[in-house]
What we know:
Blueprint lengths: L3 E5 L6 E9 L3 H6 L12 E7 L2 E11 L10 E8 L1 H12 L4 E3 L4 H8 L5 H12 L3 H11 L2 H25 L10 H30 L1 E6 L6 H9 L17 E7 L2 E7 L9 H16 L2 E6 L13 E4 L19 H16 L8 H21 L6 H19 L5 H8 L7
Parallel strand pairs: 1-6, 7-9, 7-10, 10-11
Antiparallel strand pairs: 1-2, 2-5, 3-4, 4-5, 8-9
Amino acid sequence: MTDTIFALATARGKAGIAVVRVSGPLALDSAASFGVVGLTPRRATLRDLVVGGELLDTALVLFFEAGASFTGETSVEFQIHGSEAVVAAVLASLGGLSGLRMAEAGEFTRRALENGMLDLTQVEALADLIDAETEAQRRQAQRVLSGAIGARAAEWRKELIRAAALIEATIDFADEDIPVNVIPEVSEIVDRLCSAFLAEVAGSHASERIRAGFEVAIIGAPNVGKSSLLNVLVGRQAAITSAVAGTTRDIIEVRMDIGGLPVTLLDTAGLRDATDEIERIGVEIAKERAQLADLRIALLEPGDSAESGGGADIIVWGKADIVPGPNSISSHTGFGLDRLLEDIRAKLEGKVSGSGLLIRDRQRTALLAASESMVSAQRCLYTEDPSLELVAADIRSACHALDLLVGKIGVEMLLDEIFSSFCIGK
């Protein structure tokens, strides 16, 4: 029999409310141990939790029957007062019951996966939702958590099965006269799915940037004010500022939210021909990192030409409080900073406009395998004498890749890594 597990589902520490979850065949027995019986499914009930004649707390108790809970198992939730003493007393009482044990990290979600309540892409999205820091990350994770990838994969798989059935029928009755030529319909299905797979793979790179965050590098000559600009943008002293040129040797990284998008600002070493060995290394690292960044902001001295920005995505002139001008900014007065943030947001929004559903490299790899199978099928179908056996094999390979995508197969090696990022009560 499956173990019944329990855990605190809310954060530890003093709070107004704490939620303790119980899932498994003995969930209702756990409620009965507190004197709570006669629960109505999916209806909150105010009950006293009593153990050995002693009142532990008054709680809202919810009961979910098997098939209608998050885990797919019989589940009970106790919404108790969030004092550490109350939480400890309730957990200790549950821990003393035979057949109950404390849940492991991510075990509630793992059971939801095993019981078919979530597919693997939804589990990954749930992890991303828990880690979401910005509005864009929240929206993206919620879209996948709603089952968008699984629904799309189911539609694709249905079309693949249709194509496979047409081909298999032709192969099975190869010695008989078949009135309908299935090649045109199969070719149309393969062409459409090939385009759909490749488009989704192409959009996955933008989705991954939303999940992992964009890198925006501030570049420019030494002592032009890059560190001051970073500090004022993030609202704290993240980088050392000094009148001495070459103060920044290492790349300083600071996370922030710009227009709902996750951004890591990079303060790089001043670009110049350095004679100091340490500074020279810093300049080389700055050039390499800036080249790899999603966006580059060139901060120039007043009077510098735009060409000295080195083809950066955004070019601004500093020290507007001393020499004001168009596209100038001042880290001291804040002049032009709102415009700069809006320019950054607009540039990054342009990069994510074509984002797709796939949010992880594993998902992209699975769908890329499916697209490669479709390309192989295309090549075969458009030959003078197509081998239907080879086309059928390619279609089976594509179905296998879609099963890998949603976690119907090949998930065991991934689960420990995924669930290690979950809290105990999730």
